[in-house]
Amino acid sequence: MTNHPLGDELYAAYSSGALSGPMRLLIDAQAAVDTEVARSRDEADAAAGLMLETIEPAALSGSALAEVAAAIDAEEAALGEAGRAPGAHADLAAQKAAAAAGNAIKELLDLPEPVRDLALETAQWNFAGPGVRTMDLIQDGAAKAQLIRLEPGCGVPHHGHDCREFTLVLTGAFQDGRARYGKGELCAADPATEHKPTAEYGEVCIALAVTDGPLAFTGPLGWVQRALNR
User: Fold this and answer.
1) Residue 62 in 3-state DSSP?
2) Structural domains for the chain
């Protein structure tokens, strides 16, 4: 168990724009609930900014300004009268929030801002087992970010990993047979890891899970998974 096993290398990749969307979301979400992570991220951003200042600027082509203006004109023409008015994105999120039922919408509104905004756009939990719901947020190649909602005492099946998996606890807490993870803490797993995350009794556990490949379930679910992937 650790609050930030990601390390300086990933913070540097974040600042350079080299990380996938799901991994950027993971860092932003953890920074929103952990001041130490926010400090590490911001220091990496500052260092990247200083490095940029030492690089000689590249000269623009003579037609660069005209090309940018043409791209803007083309985008505006494509939008036409049906184009989204300023603030329409926020209005749509507000309408979805108003239409959602009591406790469910409150759970989403209480999440850290980077995750909350994406969750409100989706606002749809999918059944993933007794007491378990998931919500897909971002897919970027093999990398994927999703929310996992565990009712107290419920959990996901025992599984291994064909990839790296980072699970950030946003509310409540869970145990996986190795350690306990509370709000703001990050569980890191890799192909050498097998575990069974189960929410503690008391508060609903909502976690942000980011993977760069599929999970490998063991037991009967593993047989089903292998059959479906043939």
Assistant:
1) coil
2) 1-230 (2.60.120.10)
